[in-house]
Design brief:
alpha+beta; 2 domains; single chain; SH3 type barrels
């Protein structure tokens, strides 16, 4: 079977990237899920810096196994990492990815902000998301998969009706398509920069920059975790990336992950 132009161009792109950014790439025209494929490769021993990328996904996944719609024109990729150290700092990898995605979108002059825990927004609408999946023995990490989906040159009409009302794309904001490979280059170089900061244990630098891009801190929020619903003020994040929330009763909650709704948004739904 002849390789498609997308596969050829994307493989050539990765060959031109510095070797310390992407060690190996697996490129597809269509795949069920880049995260699922990356997990298979990680379990089989794929090295850190292995990337799975696809033009589209048929069963893209978001948090809590939700469907991530993946029409043509978006960026859909997963990176295999094998960070050293404890589980404690793993949540900061979502900060690393969020900052890289935000920098990529801001390179087009768009006011991208980060909505905790792992959504990127422009003008209150979701433009990108991140999915972290990891495996370890409770003391150390075997691997972490960092999945990224960016609505780049995506026509919003390609999304289902519920997604259209809550999402946007770079194309929708700028009213013109942007270069796919230029976006990839910005993302991977930015990701490498922030990941190097993490490996150097410069956690405060990552956290401070994340706070500067955060759209969540200072807002009244409702967080739905796997076990409970919590309301209060999202006032900070700790040194491991947990959200610190002060409830209406003055109690401090540390939250690793959950669905975050802003009260301002709730009042308009």
């Amino acid at each position: 079977m002849n390789e498609s132009s997308y596969i050829k161009k994307t493989e050539a792109f990765f060959e031109q990237l510095p070797q310390d950014v992407v060690k190996k790439s697996f490129v597809f025209d269509k795949i069920r899920s880049t995260n699922t494929k990356a997990k298979e490769l990680a379990k089989a021993g794929a090295e850190e810096g292995t990337v799975v990328i696809s033009k589209t996904q048929s069963q893209g996944r978001g948090r809590f196994e939700r469907n991530w719609e993946s029409p043509e024109g978006g960026v859909y990729l997963s990176v295999i990492l094998r960070p050293r150290g404890s589980f404690e700092k793993i949540p900061l990898l979502s900060f690393v990815a969020a900052l890289a995605v935000t920098k990529t979108i801001r390179s087009y002059g768009l006011p991208a902000t980060i909505k905790w825990p792992n959504d990127i927004q422009v003008n209150g609408r979701k433009i990108a998301g991140i999915l972290l999946e990891s495996e370890g023995d409770g003391r150390s990490i075997t691997y972490v998969i960092v999945g990224v989906g960016i609505n780049l040159s995506v026509d919003l009409m390609k999304f289902s009706a519920p997604i259209q009302t809550k999402s946007t794309s770079v194309l929708n904001e700028l009213h013109q398509k942007v270069d796919y490979y230029e976006s990839l280059k910005t993302f991977f170089l930015s990701f490498q920069h922030y990941y190097e900061l993490m490996k150097a244990q410069r956690y405060a630098t990552i956290i401070d920059e994340w706070k500067a891009r955060s759209d969540t801190l200072g807002k009244r929020v409702r967080i739905q975790t796997m076990t409970e619903t919590i309301q209060g003020i999202a006032y900070d994040v700790d040194q491991s990336g947990f959200l610190l929330l002060r409830t209406e009763h003055g109690e401090i909650k540390k939250i690793l992950s959950g669905d975050c709704l802003y009260f301002d948004d709730l009042n308009h739904t």
